[in-house]
């Protein structure tokens, strides 16, 4: 009998090595770090499906 690799850890929860292959990465650029005085000047996003970039926004 052979063992199959599980995505579950013995302690419970998902294995950290089983990372998602589809996600959206978001990037923002501001004029500084103080949100009371600084502004958001740019936003960008990249959509990844099955490890391939399928769409971008900037």
Model description:
This protein is mainly β and 58 residues long. The protein is 0% helix and 41% strand. The chain contains no helices and 3 strands. Strands 1-2-3 form a 3-stranded antiparallel sheet, with no helix packed on it. The mean pLDDT is 83.
SSE layout and pairings?
Layout: E1 23-30, E2 40-49, E3 52-57
Antiparallel strand pairs: 1-2, 2-3
Fill in the keyword field for this structure:
about 60 residues; 3-stranded antiparallel beta sheet; 3 strands; mainly beta
Short description:
The protein has no helices and 3 strands.
* Alpha-beta classification: mainly beta
Low-pLDDT parts are none
Question: What is the C-alpha radius of gyration, as a whole number of Å?
Answer: 19 Å
Total of helices: 0
Q: H/E element string?
A: EEE
**How would you write the strand order of the largest sheet?**
1-2-3
How many strands, what sense, and barrel or not for the largest sheet?
A: 3 strands, antiparallel
| Beta-strand share of residues | 35-45%
Average predicted confidence as pLDDT: 83
- What is the molecular shape? flat
**Got a strand count?**
3
Beginning-to-end CA distance, first to last residue? 52 Å
Fraction of residues in helix = under 10%
